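Ticket reopened. Same input as before:
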Amino acid sequence: MAIQRKSNIHIMDGNQAAAIAARLSRVQVVAAYPITPQTPLTEQLSLFVESGELKAEYVAVESEHSALAVCTSASIVGARAFTATSAHGLAYMHEMLHWAAGARLPIVLACVNRAIGAPWNVLNDQQDSIAQRDTGWIQIYCRNNQEILDTVIQAFRIAEQVYVPVMVCYDGYILSHTEMPVDIPDQADVDKYLPPYKPHTTLDPANPKNYNLVTLADPRVGVEGKLCHGYMELRYLLQEALQNSRETILDAGQEFNKIFGRDYARMFWEDRNEDAEITIVAMGSLAMEAIVAADMLREEGIKVGVLGLRVFRPFPKADVVRVLRKSKLIVVFDKNISYGSEGATCSEIKSALYGTYINASIRNFIVGLGGRDVKARELADATRKAIASLKETVINPDYPEWICQI
Amino acid sequence: MPQKTSLNNRPLEIRWHGRGGQGAITAAKIVAEAAYLKGYKGVTAAPSFGAERRGAPVSASTRISDQPVLVMSQVENPDIVMVLDHTLLTYPEVIAGLNNNGWLIVNSPLSPRELGIKGNFNIATADATRICLELGIIVAGQVIVNTAILGALAKATRVVDLPTLEKVLRDRFSKSTVEMNLAAVHKTHDATRIFKSG
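Engineering reply: fixed in the latest deploy. New output:
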């Protein structure tokens, strides 16, 4: 469907794109603590609040733990809440990440991906958000600044439909500090796309209630005389919500396309997979660099496609299998490492393929930790190396290879 | 040079070298905006990633293409190297990887030949510091040459032209400073000396 829309393109960095998206989403409470490379995002939001462009309460806090505690409290009383952090800040939020998900609060958090110390490093990798994989948040990764803006807006719609918080992840510096053209949607269109937040519970002094109080192992009768879920039933419901969130994510992407003309009805991005014998898998901005690597390899006659992971939680197992069924070799690049095992996205791919009769070889490369530059030609070289290694008998080596100087 | 903007999908790449506080990153952004205004759909402007300090060598990059830019890694083989402070030429990384027939554009009182740099690339120089000093473009005791040097870029290459630069500068700068900066751009443009290789 051809959509006649006027564009409003500005050249901006990823942090500005995220701040504008939060403003367009009419967030009501912002609580954040500055940390490199997220800082310009929080500065921009506080400017929006001070100038009156964003009618929100900006709560200055003394730590990231408190930032998410403020968002949790705000969300439970019915305010649309937004926070942002990186690396050590996200690690410091860890307890409250569990709490926000457990309390089923639709908070949106921008994680500007950065390496974690020791040793100190302010540059990009994805270890920070991957380390929060099991906190019950939906995780969506962006490849460029347009996707950052669009995804933050979609994240509120998704979160408020399934009552699960959403982490929007984008690469520190590579996107947060790099300017590129971004189309800013009209406020009226965003209002049409994003209805006001309806909280699942309300705190009302006239009608006092307890939430998230001590919950024992087994279901039992609550103060209102009704049988209440035990802890485990509540945990099951969180898992069920994530399992079922795929449809909501796809629908949010499709509806976004109808209004804004950019299609996000997808769990991941695909490039030339139709005839690909070899698939490169990458997540974040690296998925763009991978397209350039695929160009190089295609020029040599090697049939390469790219699977750019977008939604990491819930992991789209069935969708991935559909794309990879013709692959003979899957080359997975991870900007994270599960120490003693392998890259996190590689584990996901292997897990998705189990029992599907896809018998592709898988090679995992760890790249770009702590801001180490990853060039397209390095991705192409690694892919050629993986192809050469197919002569060996090992289908899946136990451990990943590192592209570093050891 | 440089009509080529996306040969084999490769964007035109500019690498900027300056010292912290000179405005190399702002210059990289201005050129990206100017190129976008001229109709290039793909532009990016990035600082060198990490900690930047006043006075210390810094770099930045601009990529320009007629398609969206997919490459996000650091520039390896620039088509144009812009040097805001000629004392940086003592660092080998400043001209490292500069493409054959590319451009080295330096803020220097010396002529291109007097720089004494040999390579298969073209050289342009202009004494932007003197021009900016005369115009009084000084912030916190430092002469700011980042707009002036854009005049040299416009003179040597077709990446940007003066009318487009003027549009971007009028948009970015306050009324009180824009005329001064535009004068610097034009004067530096006219003062640019060019040495073509081959």
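Chain A touches chain B at residues 9, 11, 122-124, 144, 171, 173-175, 177-181, 285, 288-289, 291-292, 295, 371, 373-376 (CB under 8 Å). The first strand of chain A starts at residue 9 and ends at 12. Please confirm and we'll close it.
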